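so my prof wants the structure for this chain in the tokens format not the other one, which i didnt know existed until like an hour ago. anyway here's the sequence
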Amino acid sequence: MSKPSIRVGANRNDCRTDTFLPRRASGKVSFKARAQQALSRGDWRKALENFQKHSALAPEDLRSRLKVAELLERLGRKKEAAGVYRQVAEAYARDGFLLQAISVNKMILRVDPSSKGVGDRLARLYAERNLASTSLNPLPPIPLLSELNEQELQLLLKQIELKTFDKGTPICGEGDPGDSLFIVSRGEVGVYKRMGNGEEAWIRNLEEGDFFGEFGFFTDRRRHASVRSINGCEILEIPRNRIEEMIRVHPRIKEVLQNLFRKRVLDLFLAVSPFFSGLNSGEREEVFKRFRLIRVPEETVLFRGGDPPDFLYMVKSGEVEIYTQNRKGRRTLLATLRSGSIFGETGLLFNKPRMAYARTTCPSELLGLSREDLEACLVRSPKLRSLLKEISLMRLDQTKEILFQEKLEEVKEGMV
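here's what i got, hopefully its the right format
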């Protein structure tokens, strides 16, 4: 007798075993195998009949019960389909598999838009399961979702959109506008990024339970990579405007989102920043928990040459120009900074007035670290002080070179 197969690439939260027996002990073809054969032929009625027989023998095989519901829906028996979908959704929620429960809940609403209270019941079942789980067998965390209480989760379930993609279908493209979060609820997707030579390179695959799209969601509202389905997959999408509606009802969700931002985006900023890349995760945690968000309108001068230094800044979204300005008002552009760039550290480190101007070119979000907070971080991490000074000195040399070239051009312009 062959062993039951474990679904490879399944949600890490769902280690359920599919009862897949190609043949029974007697040597006869199993009902599930017959159902799959009928499905491949397009014989939906025969496939339904055999999936129903298999599900009666193996009710724990929720994938097959989903097939029953899908076939009932295809055959126009929508009321029966909604009933089976509802049973499967509740089974997933009771077992703690929230993403699958959400997906099936959306299928119920597709079949029967008048269904009321399904999402509320799923949220309640999941919350009860979460409370019942012990420290020895806790539910695996799902970013954002696991941190919500029952009422917040009920509200979120109403805002999530379910999208289905066939194998090889683009989900989002690098550079596209985008301000929504995605969660893989079923299947697998690939992440790809354009390299310097213009060619696209594979970065990694994401499986059930993984998030993507959070970098653009929290920063500049653009996609920073392309994502395509590896196989047929279901994606849960949470649009920004829906989340903003939720925050108006439940302000605590903003705190949950800020925690998610710090964990998934700000830590990445610091990890790849030349200023903070030498820090370990604990030291980065100490730094980024001190940053505070500052929203700045377009064309705002953040500081001028000669101003006393008070903040180190990181660009979360938007754009900042760094420049000098002579007495006649002529500007020399030193740098144009975007997401992840840090500026304003030189004056703080060397305790000197600002040497340049900084202004936003569009509405921007900055992360600010005050002089006091930076000093606290430097006391805890002396290597950060030396690293910042080293990079700041390199920046000063680059600035001097730019200003020298600018002065040289002025001299040439004055020559006859």
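also thought this was worth mentioning. The longest strand covers residues 180-186.
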